[in-house]
């Protein structure tokens, strides 16, 4: 079967076009102090910097941080080009620190839950062989590591990055999803006047004054999965459920599309906020719903799709030309927020077919879908946060 290669090619093409869209502004690298308001979610890593160890007199950094994302990297640092390293991240909403030194790795997780959408004052400092994490002025975590084979270095360089890892092949004690949908401000890094480097140009993602839970699609990109990543046989079910929570009446654009391995549309859902209309197209059948409410649910069986709005059955559509459950198992493209159909259309980046709106929650077989685990996600899509008033951000 050639589909996995086809899907991989699709994701690589989308990623290249996304990067070209960023670089198309004519800005290769931008330098900043790292003290202002920064959104970590646009790129991984967002920024990076380096300094001579001989110039650093105090290993202490502080910043304010806000997120609704339960998992991702905040700060990474290393010396000797990654031989010795440190990571501050969130896992399950809790702070986690990992240290690698020589042949040893240490990890500690705990403290207060930080993915509550509020601003938190965070400080990291080194006390000899210990690293201490403070939140709100109170110590919450401490980790230490000593290796008999490690050598203390006061020469060379120290590297830092925000929102991602600088060493791709870094093997953490517990692997973690690096992308972080969050914001940092008031950064003070190593008590040193560091210059950070980023290639985002002037069009990075904004840090909003107020946020709410959900995934925000600004009308410029999509997130794509392989349906085989959601195995149905594990639930002993004869149908597949896909649920999306609104407000559906505020959506505009393509909310969902399923494409076969031959790249033919199987099911498409589009919305229009001006007419308050939702359209579902399944093979050759079409359904239009006016005044859609808060929750859309699709049940896809072998030859039928059932459409529910707020737990009320709207329509049942039949098509016995294909076994859609078998095709789901084999692998199809499941895309939220747009149509990955024609790369030329995507390169135009006019956003005409992309979704603009907040999706409060996406569930497949009752399990919440995290867009950070998509095989491809456009950098403009926020996985875990929406503006409280989407109408203020109309494209």
Q: What do you see in this structure?
A:
This protein has three helices and 31 strands. The protein is mostly beta strands. The protein has helices at 3-23, 324-330, 343-348, and strands spanning 30-32, 38-39, 47-52, 60-67, 72-79, 84-91, 94-101, 104-109, 120-127, 130-135, 138-144, 157-162, 182-188, 196-198, 211-213, 215-218, 223-226, 240-245, 253-259, 265-272, 277-282, 285-290, 295-300, 304-309, 312-318, 333-336, 356-359, 361-364, 367-368, 376-377, 385-387. Helix content is 9%, strand content 43%. The longest helix is centred in the first third of the chain and has 21 residues, at 3-23. The two termini are 40 Å apart. It has two domains: 3-17 and 213-393, Jelly Rolls, CATH 2.60.120; 29-200, Jelly Rolls (Sandwich). The strands form seven sheets. It has a seven-stranded antiparallel sheet. Mean pLDDT is 82; it is low at 1-27 and 343-352. The radius of gyration is 23 Å and the shape is elongated.
């Amino acid at each position: 079967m050639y589909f996995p290669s086809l899907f991989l090619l699709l994701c690589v093409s989308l990623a290249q076009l996304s990067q070209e869209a960023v670089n198309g502004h004519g800005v290769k690298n931008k330098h900043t102090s790292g003290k202002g308001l920064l959104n970590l979610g646009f790129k991984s890593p967002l920024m990076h910097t380096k300094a001579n160890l001989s110039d650093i007199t105090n290993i202490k950094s502080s910043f304010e941080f806000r997120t609704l994302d339960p998992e991702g990297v905040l700060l990474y640092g290393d010396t000797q080009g990654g031989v010795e390293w440190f990571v501050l991240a969130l896992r399950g909403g809790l702070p986690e620190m990992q240290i690698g030194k020589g042949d040893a790795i240490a990890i500690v997780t705990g403290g207060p839950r930080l993915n509550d959408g509020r601003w938190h004052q965070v400080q990291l400092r080194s006390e000899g062989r210990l690293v201490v994490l403070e939140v709100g002025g109170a110590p919450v975590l401490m980790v230490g590591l000593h290796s008999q084979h490690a050598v203390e270095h006061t020469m060379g360089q120290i590297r830092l990055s925000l929102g991602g890892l600088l060493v791709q092949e870094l093997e953490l004690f517990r692997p973690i999803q690096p992308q972080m949908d969050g914001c940092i401000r008031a950064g003070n890094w190593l008590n040193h006047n560091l210059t950070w480097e980023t290639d985002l140009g002037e069009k990075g993602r904004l840090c909003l004054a107020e946020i709410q839970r959900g995934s925000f699609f600004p009308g410029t990109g999509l997130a794509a999965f392989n349906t085989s990543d959601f195995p149905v046989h594990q639930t002993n079910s004869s149908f597949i459920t896909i649920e999306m929570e609104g407000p559906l009446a505020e959506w505009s654009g393509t909310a969902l599309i399923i494409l076969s391995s031959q790249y033919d549309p199987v099911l498409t859902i589009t919305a229009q906020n001006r007419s308050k209309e939702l359209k579902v197209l399944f093979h050759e059948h079409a359904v239009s719903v006016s005044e859609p409410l808060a929750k859309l649910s699709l049940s896809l069986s072998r030859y039928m799709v059932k459409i529910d709005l707020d737990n009320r059955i709207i329509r049942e559509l039949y098509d016995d030309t294909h076994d859609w459950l078998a095709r789901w198992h084999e692998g199809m493209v499941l895309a939220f927020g747009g149509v990955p159909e024609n790369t030329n259309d995507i390169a135009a980046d006019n956003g005409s077919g992309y979704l603009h709106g907040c999706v409060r929650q996406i569930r497949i077989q009752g399990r919440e879908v995290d867009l950070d685990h998509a095989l491809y996600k456009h950098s403009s899509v926020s996985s875990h946060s929406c503006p409280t008033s989407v109408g203020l951000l109309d494209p």
